[in-house]
Amino acid sequence: MRLRVLAALAFLMAPLGGANAQEAAPLLHSHWSFDGIFGTYDKASAQRGFQIYSQICSACHSMNYMAYRNLAGIGLSPAQIKAVAAAVTVPGGLDDQGKETERPGRPSDTFKAPFPNDKAAEAAMGGALPPDQSLLVAARDGGPNYIYSLMQGYVDPPAGVQVPVGHYYNKYFPGHMIAMPPPLTDNAVTYADGTKATLAQEAHDVATFLTYTSYPQLDEQHSLGVRVLLFLIFMTIVTYIAKRRVWADVH
Amino acid sequence: MAAGLFKSEVKNPVLRWVDTRLPLITMMQKEYGSFPTPRNFNYFWNFGALATVTLMIMIMTGVFLAMNYTPNANMAFSSVQHIMRDVNYGWLIRYVHMNGASMFFIVVYIHIFRGLYYGSYKFPRELLWMLGVVILLLMMATAFMGYVLPWGQMSFWGATVITNLFSAIPVVGQSIVQWLWGGFSVGNPTLNRFFSLHYLLPFLIVGVVFLHVVALHITGSNNPLGIDVKGPQDTLPFHPYYTVKDSVGLCVFLLIWAAFVFFMPNLLGDTINSIPANPLQTPADVVPEWYFLPFYAILRSVPNKVLGVALMFASIGVLFVLPWLDTSPVRSCRFRPIYRILVPLLVVDLFALGYVGAHHPQGFVVLLGRVATAWYFLHFLVFTPLVGWFETPLPLPESIAKPIVRKPHSGGGPIPGGAVAKPMENA
Ligand code: HEM
User: Fold this and answer.
1) CATH class of A2-66+110-215
2) pLDDT tens, B205-231?
3) Alpha-carbon dihedral angle through residues B264, B273, A172, A205, given to the nearest 10 degrees
């Protein structure tokens, strides 16, 4: 309850930056396992989201702040992580002759990007830069709900609205004209764990994975947080009792 | 006792050896142990101690952040991600520091409100108060430069907007701005100097806090009744009475701070600061951190840029002269029937200004901004001197220990204090 009140107070004070979002539709909301003070990542969902990222999003979007070893946080075993990393080739530095070499990826490498640099990415995308996905959830108002909505927001434009070439109409994107072609459809992937790949399911899973890439420490943060709060509540009570005792003789 | 040695009363021989040569233990005992403190403090008197603890926590977390942070325009953003992802408990250190800035301002704003309400700025505490305002200014500079360091979109554009304010200064404005930037726009040199200064200023704050506390220990503390301490019956030794009372407040404060750190660490921040700084892409809205919003609102409420900047600085400057603007001889608002309404109204006014600062200046927001700005200055420059003249204060209690009042002109016997003065709030 106290948390709610605080959150409400803080909301009143926080800059209401979203106010200018160009009449984008109100977001869809999903139920997130990582919400709330006891929230933890749904690892199965995050792994399915990782599958979507690797098979679809990674064709265009980089993930520069994620290392393969960070996949341990969504439940991949060291052997699985090694295998995922080894599937890519990365620059291996210079050899004795001063020539560039290549080597298979290691768990300590960061995710291999689809394009060598932003310019190349823009050129391939008709001028629009697909943003790096490691902080995408952190960098958008609405967080996971925004990703969840955006993935399902591709609809026919209202009558009379012209969609420029190379753009698509998305009702959740600010300004609606997005340069990203609809990345997900029903059965866009075949889930390794047999889950039925509906659009909503895929959107939910990829949003879970992207939340993990933005906040990889969240599980630890919540469990440590609960213990710290309990400790401080205990200390508050003890100190208050001590205070009453010390002050008992004054008056 | 050898000549040249301090007469120490410390028992332990080793500590005594030190204390006779450097009487720190005696000093601490005198200033924080037996220090006579008014017996009637309420919990508003916790906030100075809370601010001190916050300052220490900020310095400690800051030093650890600096060990892993890289002040370079190309690397700053990713070094912060390195702290968040690779450094052991780096996320914890960063979240404590990030939310600590907000906590610091909450605490200091309440601390200042306490001073306003109970008249702590009046004789003989004027200099103590002015040192407090200096601390506030230093805090603002520190927080502003700290916010630039992660080098996200809001860092960059916030720095651009705020430094550009100085271009309003006639004639030399543009040169000053370029001098601040170390170039022709906010860039790597700006980031480097902001980092250097962000590391330096907190230690200046420590210095001024020290002077602030020295001054406090000369005049002694004010108290909720705003009357002077008349003798030992009005005071209690600081320890254990106020050490334990401050500890209660500290625990509650840390609880609130921790709730932010662990469960809503980004609530007070801005999402677009998770996007690396991009000089080619101006964000739709450049909004400062919440603790600057009222001042930002004053700035934007004035159609003329030079005047806007001047008023913004004047809004803090007016605090410096407050001790001489207030003409009332009575300190505590408890005995000031009119001023005790005006001070909370000023708080409402500041909330209104905060709202204005967070919103697009259009229509109603502009009007509200102007009215609230006018009220802010009217409060200090007109109402405060006038009310001091015209208000009839309630009769003051005779002393803190004996809150007994004499009716001003009746010449009658004492009446029980409870009838007029509120009961003590120190339970
Ligand atoms: C870094 C920020 C600050 C720290 C660490 C700090 C610290 C303290 C401490 C430890 C006390 C004694 C305890 C108390 O009375 O609450 C105190 C008293 C006081 N402070 Fe501050 N302070 C800070 C900022 C300010 C500011 C910004 C102002 C005013 C503009 C201010 C005005 C006062 C006054 C007037 C007193 C005497 C209060 C009384 O006894 O009534 N302080 N401060």
Assistant:
1) mainly alpha
2) 999 999 999 999 999 999 999 999 999
3) -60
**CATH label of the domain that carries residue B324:** 1.10.287.980
Residues in chain B, pLDDT under 50: 406-407, 409-427
Residues B278 and B293 in one domain: no
Pairing of strands B36-38, B235-237: antiparallel
Asked whether the beta carbons of B265 and A7 are under 8 A apart, the reply is no
A152 vs A148: CA distance, rounded Å: 7
Q: What pLDDT, in 10s, does the model give residues B54-100?
A: 999 999 999 999 999 999 999 999 999 999 999 999 999 999 999 99
| CA–CA gap between residue A26 and residue A204 (Å, rounded) | 17
User: Which residues approach ligand 1 with their CB closer than 6 A?
Assistant: B 45, 47-49, 51-52, 55, 108, 111-112, 115, 120-121, 125, 128-129, 132-133, 135-136, 139, 205, 209, 212-213, 216, 221-222, 319
Domain residues for the domain of B150 are 31-283
Mark whether B388 and B333 lie in a shared domain. Answer: yes
β-bridge partners, B415: B405
B288 SS3 class: coil
- Residue B26 counted as domain residue: no
Q: Rounded to two decimals, what is the model's pTM?
A: 0.90
Backbone angles phi, psi at B321, to 5 degrees: -100, 0
Residue pair B195/B149 in contact by the 8 Å Cβ criterion: yes
- Within a domain: B150: yes
| Strand, coil or helix: B306 | helix
Residues 13-32 of A with CB under 8 A from B: 13-17, 19-20
- Residue that terminates a domain, selected from B234, B262, B283: B283
Q: Is residue B402 part of a domain?
A: no
Q: What is the ipTM of this complex?
A: 0.90
